[in-house]
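User: Predict structure, ligand zinc ion.
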Amino acid sequence: MQRMITEQPPIIPCSKGHAARHMLDLRRPSAGGGHSVECACSTTARHLIFEEAHAEWCLMHGQRAPIRRPPAKRSVFPSELAQLQLSL
Ligand SMILES: [Zn+2]
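Assistant: Predicted complex:
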């Protein structure tokens, strides 16, 4: 089952000028569900979140990808942890 979601602000048209639609397939991802963006001539793959589908759409049509916050830096070890000099 698919439904169309109206985005505000609207998704940019494709490179040929077709209006773009955000589609949500309500099936489980393993059954082919997810978010996609489509127009009369093209469609993205299904994604778990709309932002990923939107980013693919922008790349497909040569538009600048939407600004996303960079992921926070994560490190496994604190930087002040001394490196042990191991030798045989
Ligand atoms: Zn199009």
